[in-house]
Each structure stands twice: as C-alpha cells, then as structure tokens.
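Suppose a colleague, Dr. K., hands you the sequence of a protein chain of 153 amino acids and asks what its three-dimensional shape might be. Before reaching for any lab equipment, you can write down a predicted structure in token form. Begin with the sequence itself:
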Amino acid sequence: MSGCEGLRKKFTRKKKAAVKMPRIYQVKKYEKKPSPELYNKHYAYWLNWQSELLKVLGQNRKKDTRCIEEVISNLKDMQNILVPEMAEKLQPHIDKMWKVRDVIVEGNLSQYNKSYVEMTVSREYRYIRDQFSYKHVKDHLKTSFEDESEETK
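The predicted structure, expressed as tokens, is then:
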C-alpha cells in the first residue's frame, strides 16, 4: 500500500528558490522651484480638465468626479506658485469649485443642479482663463517655495 512514492520524494532534488537581488534606490535631493513652465503646465492641465468637465457633465458620474477633482487639484497647484496676494484672489474661485464638487459627488444631478453646475463651471472657466493666464500673472510668481514656509513659521 505504501509504495515507493515517499522514497522517491525523499531522494529527489528540490528546486532551489531563486535569490532575488534587492533593489537599491539612490536618493538624491530634488530641488523643485516655481517657474513659468510649471505654472503653464498646471494652467494647461486645468484648462483641459475644466473644458472636459463642461463637455461630459452629466454623462458619467465617475468621469464628472474625476474631472472636478483634477480641476481643483490644478487650481491649488497654480495657487501654490503665485505670490500670496494673487493666491488670495484665486481662493474664492477654488471655493466655488469645491461647492460644485459637493453637488457632483452627492450624485443628485437633477436638471436644476446640472444647470447650476454648468453655469458655475463655465463662469469660472471664463474668469480664471482671462485673469490667471500666464500673461496676467507672470509678474506675480514666487521665486522659491521656501519663501512661503519661512513666512508661516
């Protein structure tokens, strides 16, 4: 009954586990400075996400949520690059986008709410596009991110 299966298992070579080489990451200091290119990048991202939101509003809740989250994120990034006086001027528009986000995330996009969101988003789109384009804020960009952290201490 027992056979020689156990005996064969006992004397058969076992495969050796492959030894994985550990990954070594070289950490180096990364200096990120506010620059016109960085502002333009976030401005372009904001412009595209905001126009995408206007195009697809009401078709897909997940897409609407993703668009509004990206819009707010890029507005915050633009705000971080601006000097405090200009950043304060952008804050009310970010707050309005947060209100729009709340309506979208709640998911009850009735005809009234959809009209409100479309109107608010298009109004903010026009205003921010006109008032916070690079040509209007090029003299109001920070020179470094450390300036802000030193002021808050």
